Amino acid sequence: MARVTALLFAPLRSLGAALAMLPGVRFVRARVQRFLQRPRTPRDGRIRLDRHHVYILPTASGAGFALLLAVMLLTSLNYNVSLGFLLTFVLAGVVVSAMWQTHRNLVDLEVRGAAGDAVFAGHALNVSVALANVTPWARVGVDVSARDAAAVETSLDAQDAIVAALAFGDQPRGWFRLPRLTVSTRFPLGLFRAWSYADAPLTLLVYPAPEPSAPPLPASFTPDPKENDREDDARAARTPIEEAADQLRIYRPGDPLRSIAWKHSARAGTWMSRTGQPPRHAQCVLAWDALPPAMNVEQRLSRLCAWVLAAEHAPAGEEPEYTLSLPGVSIGPARGPAHRDACLRALALWGKPAMPGDAA
To answer: Keywords on this record (predicted)?
Structure first.
């Protein structure tokens, strides 16, 4: 059946390609494309596929079936076959019912946003799209797709909500903006295809791919303590959080009153003093300029990314505070999830727009 349909429609395709080159046809086609590409942004956090934004056309199977009905009708008229008329109109009624059911399967479906996580370049990026059925009838065979992502088929019960997972291939470093979503269906017979669009606002970061066999971290160092003549001034300028990081010891005669840890003394039942020396952590600098000159930009970013992850997951007792040093940018020294994310963000956006809509 598919081969016969392809042979029958081959001349029509050639004729359509020739007509598409005419100026008037191109103008109409451009107007139709503009109409179909109207923005479909969320309202109150959701996009409802109302009947004004659901489109329907016959599929190749539907067009072939319509041609078959035309042939059956002409045959019945030519030979005056009553049962042929009966069968033709019964099948035509089935086609009309299928068209209504296809359209109804999509109308008033809701897209309630999309979510995803940042990934490293070279890894698939997964985006979850939330769909909701607010009507008292089920939705069967609903496809969710986007550019560069395979369609995902799902079904929803009455008053139900599901999450469809779209998988995008390897993405380049920088910003990833979710393309326009297409929600479609061919239910129940595949004779018609109804579809609609949704523009879910989602932008994710794609970090550089970590170098697989990166060399060890640069050598760590311990900062020198402050000079004695500046120690009192530095201590007076410290914040309460920094004061809390001081080491405690039993009070010794001659310790200044400001060094007494009053709260700790009350809890311990004896006088406690702060030493004025907070614990010092080893530090290392992850510097762009220290990398071999032969490395290109992406290779440098890949190695620095691997070093950031290695410094963050250093063995217990060897966790250094690290500084990411890029030309014109220095982050740290610090450690922890917030510092790691700040470093990875700086690496991902090196040479890229700071915000998704900015020009490079």
So the answer is: Membrane, Transmembrane, Transmembrane helix
Total structural domains within the chain: 3
**Which residues span the domain enclosing 269?**
231-274
Q: Are residues 186 and 83 in the same domain?
A: yes
Paired sense of beta strands 109-116 and 55-58, if any: unpaired
> How buried is 325 (Cβ within 10 angstroms: 0-12 exposed, 13-18 middle, 19+ buried)?
middle
Whether the predicted pLDDT of 28 surpasses 90: no
Q: Which is more confident, 53 or 18?
A: 53
* Residue carrying structure tokens 């089935």: 94
* Ordered alpha helix ranges (H), 177-289: 228-236, 240-244, 262-268
Q: Are 178 and 203 in contact (CB under 8 A)?
A: yes
- Do 288 and 268 lie in one domain? The reply is no
Judge whether 215 lies within some domain.
no
Structural domain includes residue 203: yes
What is d(CA 1, CA 105) in angstroms, rounded to the nearest whole number?
Answer: 27
Residue 74's alpha-carbon distances to 9, 70, 88, 282, in angstroms, are 19, 6, 10, 89
For residues 334 and 2, what is the distance between their CA atoms, to the nearest angstrom?
A: 64
Q: Is the pLDDT of residue 136 over 90?
A: yes
Q: Which is more confidently placed, 246 or 339?
A: 339
Coil, helix or strand for 306?
A: helix
Contact by Cβ (8 Å): 103, 194: yes
Q: Are residues 259 and 306 in the same domain?
A: no
For the record, the structure tokens of 187 come out as 């239910």
Separation between Cα atoms, residue 185 and residue 202, nearest integer Å: 24
The string of pLDDT tens digits covering residues 238-268 is 444 444 445 676 777 767 776 777 777 777 7
Q: Which residue carries 């239910």 as its tokens?
A: 187
Cα angle vertex 344, ends 341, 348, to 5°?
A: 135
